[in-house]
Amino acid sequence: MDIRQLRYFVTVAEEANFTRAAARLHLAQPGVSAQVRQLEKELGHLLLDRSGRSVTLTEVGEAVLPYARAAISAVEAVRQAADEFTGLLRGQVTLGLISGRAQQRMSSTWPPSWPASTRTTPRWRSP
Fold first, then answer.
1. Cα 11 to the center of its chain, rounded Å
2. According to the model, what pLDDT value does residue 88 have?
3. What is the pLDDT of residues 79-119, one digit of tens each?
4. Dist. CA 40–CA 13, nearest whole Å
5. Could you tell me if 6 and 39 are in contact, meaning their C-beta atoms sit under 8 angstroms apart?
6. pLDDT in tens, 7-62
C-alpha cells in the first residue's frame, strides 16, 4: 500500500465516479482503477461498490476512508515541515556586525515577521 493508492481511493470516494476522479487527478481512468483494485487486493476487502451507475463505499470502505484521509494529511504535513527548511521558512540565521551604528540600524529595521528571533550583543575582550 502506498500513499498514491490511498489518494486515488479518497478521490474516487469523493467523486463517486472513476472517470471524474481520474480527470481530477490528471490521470487515465484505467490506471486509477487498477491502483484502487491493487489496494483492495492488498487489504483483502472491496472498498468500493461498482455495481451501480455511481461508485459507493462499502462498509469496509467507509471504515477505511477517514484513515486514508489522515494518512494523506500526515504525508502533506511531513512535506510542509521539510519545505519550511528548504524554502527558508524556518531555520536559523546568524548575522555578525562590527560597527555600533550598523548594529543600531539593524535593531531598528528588524523585520516584524521574525518575532521569535533573538539578538545578542557579544562582549568584546581585549587580548
1. 16
2. 58
3. 888 877 776 555 566 666 666 666 666 666 666 665 555 55
4. 13
5. yes
6. 999 999 999 999 999 999 999 999 999 999 999 999 999 999 999 888 999 999 99
- CA-atom Rg of the chain in angstroms: 26
Set of cell numbers at residue 98: 562590527
* Residues composing the chain: 127
Alpha helices in the chain (DSSP H): 3-15, 18-25, 29-43, 59-86, 100-108
127 vs 123: CA distance, rounded Å: 13
Contact 102, 109 (CB under 8 A): no
Give the whole-angstrom CA distance, residue 113 versus residue 50: 51
Amino acid identity, residue 73?
S
Chain centroid to CA 5: how far? Answer: 16
